[in-house]
Amino acid sequence: xxxxxxxxxxxxxxxxxxxxxxxxxxxxxxxxxxxxxxxxxxxxxxxxxxxxxxxxxxxxxxxxxxxxxxxxxxxxxxxxxxxxxxxxxxxxxxxxxxxxxxxxxxxxxxxxxxxxxxxxxxxxxxxxxxxxxxxxxxxxxxxxxxxxxxxxxxxxxxxxxxxxxxxxxxxxxxxxxxxxxxxxxx
Length: 186
Known about the structure:
It is a single chain. The chain is an alpha+beta fold. It has one domain (9-38, 48-185): Jelly Rolls (Sandwich), CATH 2.60.120.620. The chain is built from 2 helices and 15 strands. Strand 10 and strand 11 form a beta hairpin. The longest helix has 19 residues, at 63-81. The chain is globular, with a radius of gyration of 16 Å. It starts with 9 loop residues before the first strand and ends with a strand. The mean pLDDT is 93.
């Protein structure tokens, strides 16, 4: 087992074909987006921050195929860990699309997403997945551990643990629009 936290951040380069990503971005232009909010488990409310990105859970034709890419990337990640105590996972959430227009960002946070699970007992996901659909924008760097840039290009998928030890943010986009998608494993 590695003791360096960064060793559990995996970026699978070109996991999704560029043409598929380009077509997905085209499809995203046909659906509505709304400003992103964070769920606050302490007072059961949602809040947003200045310059926050937009998100959508809407259906597009490529969504089902993206779900399969996510499944395959998580299977690869778990296999590469080679942990006898972590050999399975139950599934992952539906894809959520993220859109960062010029002058938007995502505030620093960790993925303690209690709102993913219904019922009186809520938990958090165990893995976070981020996939990038384009790279023809400026700014929008993915920053982890407060100062480490994780380079993500079109078609890349990144997976990392969803716990407090993995704070991350997306810097403000200064030109163009950044498109990505996310999902979480339980």
